[in-house]
Amino acid sequence: MEEAVRHLERGDWQAAHALVDDDESPLGRWAHGIVHLLEGDVANARYWYQRAQRPLPRASEVKAEIAALAAAAAAIRGSGHEASPVR
């Protein structure tokens, strides 16, 4: 997930998409939604946010979403297991 986050932070949604496309974890679904926000595909982003059980943010909030995803991934990495991210 850390590599996908780095790609998202740089705005490289294609590289991030390649990493999260098959990730069915809650963080993977969230990251997948962010990918589609960056791409400009709001309908697909909405689908992935629903699967991640997260509210769809406005496009203007995508940088904050990436930061929140990075923090959640770091917290999970520190705990040693995958869990649903805190909303």
Structural features, described:
The protein has one domain (2-79). It has five helices and no strands. It has helices at 2-10, 13-20, 26-39, 42-51, 62-79. The chain starts with a helix and ends in an 8-residue tail after the last helix. Helix 2 (13-20) packs antiparallel against helix 3. The chain is an all-alpha fold and 87 residues long. The protein is 68% helix and 0% strand.
Separation of termini?
Answer: 18 Å
Q: What level of helicity do the residues show? A: 55-70%
Compressed to H and E, one letter per element, the order equals HHHHH
Strand count: 0
Give the class from helix and strand content and strand pairing. Answer: mainly alpha
Largest sheet: none
Write the layout of secondary structure elements.
Blueprint: H1 2-10, H2 13-20, H3 26-39, H4 42-51, H5 62-79
Helix pairs in contact: 1-2, 1-5, 2-3, 3-4, 3-5
Defining traits:
mainly alpha; 5 helices; disordered C terminus
Question: How is this structure best summarized?
Answer:
Helix content is 68%, strand content 0%. The chain is built from five helices and no strands.
